[in-house]
Design brief:
By secondary structure, the chain is of the alpha+beta class. It folds into two domains: 3-86, Orthogonal Bundle (434 Repressor (Amino-terminal Domain)); 98-349, no CATH class. Helix content is 23%, strand content 28%. The protein is built from seven helices and 17 strands. It has helices spanning 3-21, 25-31, 36-44, 52-61, 66-86, 121-126, 193-200; strands spanning 98-100, 130-135, 157-162, 173-177, 203-205, 207-216, 222-235, 241-245, 257-261, 270-271, 280-282, 288-295, 300-311, 314-320, 327-330, 337-340, 347-349. Strands 4, 5, 7, 8, 11, 13, 14, 15, 16 and 17 form a ten-stranded mixed beta sheet that branches. The protein is globular and about 50 Å long.
Length: 351
């Protein structure tokens, strides 16, 4: 299937859900917190939302079934990949290094249970320094008597990495910043969040959620055999202020979710809520989204993920990090915590 067809299939399901809801474009756009013209574009297939939380919110407003939500997510992944291909993004054949592609963020919102809503939910859910990594690090073994060497095999996977992947709009985010409140800009939303994080050199505090969208590039199925956490560096948390947004997380757990404790001597990834763990199969038409939640309480940890794959008699390892640098998650225990009220003018001390 070509790029245009994959985008058209995604748009077709959006239109079907919209029509079935009985809502006008204006009414649905208002409830989904987007402009009417943007909703028209998505339903015509003139663009693919970079933010899946917007897609999910719209679908739920239209009364989508769980099965339709799964299918919509599948089509969104394929349409997004097709759109990137249309922009000239390709998987490089070099087998020794990963190459970054294009960014894709997430967003959301939900009322707080506190008397004064603390909303940075859009930031918390959207802090998506999203780095699409078309990785071509192949460590195939050559047994010497059969098959090509590692350097002749291209990695049969692409991996899109969302560094702050809070799809649930209720999710809370906390960041450590080495600045006093007067020098920290107010919270921002959506596409402006990566610049906010970069400008302030913010570090994910206590918990960080990374989403890996893994998709095959050829006709053969690829088996994801294992995921391993690697620690590049670990030390005491920095003595910085903590800046908090949102109102806590909902109870939903995706079907491919893993937890890891970065404070452990040797962190491992464990499936959440009794879910089935690896291996998984992926292909060009059946991607998987893997959600990794990393926790840190007493350490400041620089970490990465190694994904081991197997396909058509070949195997290898893909090194996954944050655009050429390790992910970084730090504990914030004992640090001053500041929040910014909706409509407020400054950060205030919460704890």
């Amino acid at each position: 299937m070509g790029a245009a067809e994959e985008i058209a299939e995604f748009a077709s399901l959006l239109r079907e859900l919209k029509q079935r809801s009985g809502l006008s474009y204006e009414a649905l756009a208002k409830r989904a917190h987007m402009s009417t013209s943007t909703l028209h574009r998505y339903c015509r297939g003139d663009g693919v939302p970079a933010d899946y939380a917007v897609v999910s919110r719209m679908a739920r407003l239209c009364g989508a079934t769980p099965e339709e939500l799964v299918e919509l997510h599948r089509r969104w992944v394929l349409a997004g990949a097709a759109q990137e291909r249309g922009r000239g993004v390709v998987v490089p054949p070099a087998p020794e290094e990963s190459a970054p592609l294009a960014p894709v963020p997430v967003a959301g919102e939900e009322p707080s249970h506190r008397p004064f809503p603390k909303r940075w939910a859009l930031v918390a859910a959207a802090v998506a320094l999203v780095l699409t990594v078309a990785t071509a690090l192949t460590l195939d073994r050559d047994d010497g008597d059969a098959g090509p060497s590692a350097h002749s095999i291209t990695t049969p996977l692409t991996i899109s990495t969302r560094t702050y992947a809070w799809d649930d709009p209720q999710c809370e985010a906390k960041y450590l910043v080495d600045r006093p409140p007067a020098e920290v800009a107010p919270p921002v939303m959506g596409q402006h969040v990566p610049a906010w994080v970069k400008t302030h050199r913010a570090v994910a505090a206590d918990e960080q959620r990374v989403a890996l969208t893994v998709q095959g590039t050829g006709d053969e199925a690829v088996v994801i055999e294992s995921l391993h956490i690697g620690v590049a560096d670990s030390g005491p948390p920095p003595a910085w202020n903590a800046y908090l947004g949102s109102s806590g997380c909902g109870g939903g757990v995706e079907t491919r979710s893993f937890d890891t404790n970065l404070d452990a001597p040797h962190p491992v990834l464990a499936p959440k809520a009794g879910q089935r763990g690896l291996p998984y199969k992926v292909s060009r038409t059946d991607p998987e989204v893997l959600y990794l939640t990393a926790h840190a309480t007493t350490h400041d940890v620089h970490w990465y993920v190694d994904l081991q794959w197997n396909s058509a008699g070949h195997q290898g390892t893909i090194h996954i990090d944050d655009h050429g640098r390790p992910f970084r998650t730090s504990g914030s225990r004992g640090r001053p915590v500041y929040e910014f009220l909706v409509g407020g003018t400054h950060w205030y001390r919460d704890a």
